[in-house]
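Reviewers of the previous submission asked for a worked example of the structure-prediction workflow described in the proposal, so we include one complete record here. The input consisted solely of the amino acid sequence. No template or homolog information was supplied to the procedure at any stage.
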Amino acid sequence: MATGKIPCGIAIPQMSTPNYVPELRDFLSRAEALGYDSVWVQEQILGDAPMFEPITLLTFVAALTSRVRLGTSVILPVTRHPIHLAKTLATADHLSNGRITLGVGLGGPHVPEPPFNIPKENRSRRFVEVLKVMKLLLTEPRASFAGEFWKFDNLAMEPKPLQKPHPPIWFGARDEVALKRAARHGDGWMGAGSSTHADFVTQSTMLRRLLAESHRDPATYPISKRVYIAIDDDRERAERRLREWFGVRYRNPDMASRVSIWGSVDQCVDKLGELVRAGAQHFLLNPVFDDMEHLERLASDVMPRL
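From that input alone, the workflow returned the following structure tokens.
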């Protein structure tokens, strides 16, 4: 079992396959036994990749696990109705016995607004308002709200989540405006897997400053980083396989070489150590091939050395 000082989560394989459910059971059983602190899913509602809806999947994962936290990194609240989102989150929190972490993001140009009937304008204000509505419904016996996009009076929603005041909300954010929202409205932050080490250094430094300006204690605000990682003594092979995956998932194979960590165990530990020195307090480790093999090797060879 991993015994390193930096807690690590692992990305759940999320693509539909013929043997997905039994393979997922095995993966989750080993993840808990090996000492991962959390398991995480992403969101892609539209697209040709056969990815499962994240909160539904985590609710199923809750029934297959007992200890690990269950996180989204990230969902896009602007594409969801806040009342339904609040109810779904409270339900998942109960069914997981209070283990849900909701990772949220604003989304970027890749989000197709028209199918969701969302205007491109005022996206950031809509995003903040969704979170405000959701928090009210999850914490108040009777909730009233008069905003720009939603208005209601004296609404009750039960049951309230087990986690108080609500499940922690971690932000994915990159630029200063988004990081300022994270400092004001979030309970934690996770650097994107598609951002570079230099980006993480800049963003985490900026976030700590913004937390201080918002009179929030950075010591109580988790800072995490999704890391695409591949352990292989043959560095060229590892990079090639990462580039193949990024070419399919992001339509950009060159991104793999800019943002991933790959190579021998020593090389991967050294690169992760750089992120720790830059302020990372938690990692979401994200292999993109040989999932079970990486699950084992990361826990036995990498995590104890962090």
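The longest helix spans residues 123-139. We consider this example representative of the routine output the project will generate in years two and three.
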